[in-house]
Amino acid sequence: NMASFTLPEGFTDFDMFMFGSALLVAGVLGFFLNAISIVSYLRVKEMRTPSNFFVFNLALADISLNINGLTAAYASYLRYWPFGEEGCAFHGFQGMISVLASISFLAAVAWDRYHQYCTRQKLFWSTALTITSIIWILSILWAAFPLLGWGVYDFEPMRTCCTLDYTRGDRDYITYMLMLVVFYLLFPAFTMMSCYDGIYKQFKKIHHHRFNTNVPLRVLLMCWGPYVLMCIYACFENTKLVSPKLRMVLPVVAKTNPIFNALLYTFGNEFYRGGVWHFLTGQKIVDPVIKKSK
């Protein structure tokens, strides 16, 4: 019976369908691209280097976010959340782990690339495994706080997906949110900015630009910036005054991030795409060599 539930305030049936479709397309595309990245890494032995391990973990975090988005797409087509309150808390928790890990691995990749191109220090497996473990443990820990009462996971305006509830704007929310912004946006963004700036200078010195060093940070800020700004705004103002549709557009935009990450770090990465090509076609590609600066 279609009439047994009410549509969320500010949304028509058509809106639910459109948001569901946007989540579905972003989820399926991201899932597909990140799955290729993950399977290639597991199947092609030559790819399994400590540096590529960061990219592999980034793809794991991102595919987890894709699954989160696909769950939301499914609920949007149903027009209600079928998994109850525990399901909502778990959905928020799982989504938060994915996001925090994804952003952390972007910083780890930047840090590693700086050493690859500039200091020529080799990344050892022990270091890669330690950093990866720390990133996952911290992501799970920070994502668990709202389950323990520091912040709360609740429905987004469409009531078909769950995230950190920014509409409360109480002290718990404000302190938790500001800590997240510092540790999971400002710190990674600063790391990326300084590492890619160093790489850019190195490329300029050897007159060989191997990739566009401006893109990684721009993509992160383009996808996550607007949503995070709304969450910061919610620390000081009542977000319920912002239209529910706009409040839904921002997380949907953020959930496209795994698509861009896959294109940038898997298919646009000279040390990774060869392995993907090998996996997809069976043809080997010779590894690129890094020029030393004079």
Describe this structure as you would to a colleague.
By secondary structure, the chain is mainly α. It has one domain (10-281): Rhopdopsin 7-helix transmembrane proteins (Up-down Bundle), CATH 1.20.1070.10. It is 69% helix and 2% strand. The protein has nine helices and two strands, in the order H-H-H-H-E-E-H-H-H-H-H. It has helices at 13-43, 50-78, 84-119, 125-144, 171-206, 215-236, 244-254, 257-266, 273-281; strands spanning 153-155, 162-164. It has a two-stranded antiparallel ribbon.
Can you tag this structure with a few keywords?
294 residues; single chain; Rhopdopsin 7-helix transmembrane proteins; two-stranded antiparallel sheet; 9 helices; mainly alpha; globular
Could you give the topology of this structure?
Elements: H1 13-43, H2 50-78, H3 84-119, H4 125-144, E1 153-155, E2 162-164, H5 171-206, H6 215-236, H7 244-254, H8 257-266, H9 273-281
Antiparallel strand pairs: 1-2
